[in-house]
Structure formats: C-alpha cells, structure tokens
C-alpha cells in the first residue's frame, strides 16, 4: 500500500468538469451507436442517428475547449506515478486525446460519405455516393477507433480505481470536485 498523500491539491474545476463531461459523452455516444439499428428504418432511425451526430459534434467542441484549457490555463499537478508507470499513464492520456480527435474527424467524414439526413431537416450531399466500399471502410474505421478508445479508457479507469482503493494515494480524489 502506498499511503503517501502525494496529492494534496485537486485539479481546477474546469479541468475536472471537462474530464467528466467528455468521459460521460463518450459512453453515451457508444451506447447510442449500439441501439441505432434497433430503431425502425425511416424517420425513427434517422432521428436516433441524428442524436448521435449532434452529440458527436458537441463532443468535438467540448474536446477543443478542454485541450485549449489544459494547454493554457489548467492546473499542472505532479505526476501521479513514477518511472515506467508514469510514462504509461502519460502515453494513455495523450493517446486518448489523439484518438478522440480522430474519432470526431472520422465521424464527420462518415456523415459526409454516407450523405446522412439530419433530423429530416436536410441531407448532406454524399461524397462519392456509389462507392459502397468507402462507406463500409470509413464506418468500420469509426467503429474500430471507438473500441480502442473504450479499451484504453477502461484500463485508465481501472488505474484510477487501483490508486483509490488499493494505494489510497488521493489520485482519483484530485480529479473530483471538492474543497481544496
Ligand atoms: C471515456 C472515459 C475517459 C476518458 C476519455 C478519460 C481521459 C482522461 C485524460 C485525457 C486525462 C488526462 C488529463 C490531463 O491531464 O489533461 C485523464 C485524467 C484522469 N482520469 Fe480520466 N478519462 C476517462 C474516464 C475516467 C474514469 C472512469 C476515471 C475514474 C475511475 C478517470 C480518472 C482519471 C484521473 C484520476 C485522472 C488524473 C490522473 C492524474 O492526475 O495523473 N478517468 N483522463
Ligand atoms: C467518441 C465519440 C463517438 C463514439 C464512441 C462513436 C461510436 C460509434 C460506433 C460504435 C458506431 C457504430 C459503427 C459500426 O457500425 O461499426 C458509430 C456509428 C456512427 N457514428 Fe459515431 N461515435 C462517436 C462520434 C461520432 C461523431 C463525432 C460523428 C459525426 C459527427 C459520428 C457519426 C456516426 C455515424 C453517422 C454513424 C453511422 C450510424 C449508422 O450506422 O446508422 N460519431 N459511432
């Protein structure tokens, strides 16, 4: 057990809210993607997909604001781990940011390739409409990146829980809103 409370300070509130808002939105996006095809073909499915697209765009804006905030004003805390574990944690954090950016870009491209209808209001004119292979490949890429993000986020969350419940070192606490 590591009982050193290396972390007496928390992240600043915007950093904390950005973190949890992005995490929750990613999970919601994954959940919606699993049920889109359960909606009857036609308007109900278009609407479910449009919710996924809208929240995906919100995620893009939130992510851009989060990255700007972290780069310019966010509180920098000492690393939570040492040595190899520290490098691993840092790599996973950067990988999550990078994959989320790619996810949003590929998602937008997917809408363009599919020529999706948005809530019945308008349709995006499809890029290369007869190219089914492109459509399938971009869709598959989008799905694969989602799976990788989920696996990495799962490992990352497990590390947070190990810090909290096994090592009792306050690392999870500094990503939670609180007094100091
Ligand atoms: C999709 C879900 C998640 C994503 C994309 C995500 C992403 C990230 C990123 C990119 C950072 C680095 C923040 C920075 O310094 O800029 C971070 C930090 C952190 N995350 Fe997550 N996270 C997710 C879920 C979780 C969960 C479920 C937990 C808790 C069980 C958690 C606990 C933490 C903690 C404690 C830190 C701070 C680590 C430190 O101080 O070194 N995260 N997260
Ligand atoms: C982290 C954010 C996101 C996650 C986790 C996510 C996840 C998924 C998954 C798992 C699928 C199913 C892929 C497959 O069929 O194999 C999907 C489909 C799709 N996603 Fe996303 N997505 C995200 C962001 C976005 C964004 C930003 C957009 C566009 C702005 C978008 C647009 C779409 C579209 C159009 C589909 C096709 C839906 C259908 O097949 O009916 N996604 N998404």
What does this structure look like?
With 180 residues, this protein is mostly helical. It has one domain. The chain has four helices and two strands, in the order αααββα. The chain has a two-stranded antiparallel sheet with strand order 1-2. The longest helix has 34 residues, at 132-165. It is elongated and about 55 Å long. Mean pLDDT is 94; it is low at 1-5. Residues 19, 22-23, 26, 70, 77, 80, 89, 93, 96-97, 153, 156-157, 160-161, 171-172, 174-175 line the site of one protoporphyrin IX containing FE (HEM).
List cofactors, ions and other ligands: protoporphyrin IX containing FE
Number of strands: 2
Order of helices and strands: HHHEEH
- How many separate domains make up the residues? 1
Major β-sheet annotation: 2 strands, antiparallel
Approximate strand percentage: under 5%
The multimeric state of the shown protein is single chain
Distance between the termini: 24 Å
- Average pLDDT taken over every residue: 94
Name the poorly predicted regions: 1-5
Q: In order across it, which strands form the biggest sheet?
A: 1-2
Total helical elements: 4
Q: Would you tell me the structural class of the helices and strands?
A: mainly alpha
- Overall, the morphology is elongated
Helical content class: 55-70%
Alpha-carbon Rg, integer? 19 Å
Task: Please give the structural blueprint.
Blueprint: H1 13-35, H2 43-72, H3 83-114, E1 117-118, E2 122-123, H4 132-165
Antiparallel strand pairs: 1-2
The protein binds protoporphyrin IX containing FE (2 copies).
């Amino acid at each position: 057990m590591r009982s050193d409370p290396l972390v007496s300070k928390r992240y600043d509130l915007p950093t904390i809210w950005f973190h949890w808002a992005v995490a929750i939105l990613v999970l919601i996006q994954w959940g919606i993607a699993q049920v889109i095809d359960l909606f009857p073909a036609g308007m109900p499915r278009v609407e479910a997909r449009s919710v996924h697209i809208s929240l995906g765009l919100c995620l893009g804006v939130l992510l851009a604001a989060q990255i700007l905030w972290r780069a310019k004003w966010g509180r920098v805390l000492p690393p939570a781990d040492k040595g190899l574990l520290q490098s691993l944690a840092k790599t996973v954090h950067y990988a999550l940011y990078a994959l989320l950016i790619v996810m949003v870009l590929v998602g937008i491209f997917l809408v363009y390739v599919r020529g999706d209808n948005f809530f019945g209001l308008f349709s995006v004119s499809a890029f290369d409409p007869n190219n089914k292979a492109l459509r399938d490949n971009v869709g598959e890429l989008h799905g694969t990146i989602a799976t990788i993000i989920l696996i990495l986020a799962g490992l990352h969350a497990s590390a947070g829980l190990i810090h909290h419940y096994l090592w009792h070192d306050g690392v999870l606490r500094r990503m939670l809103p609180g007094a100091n």
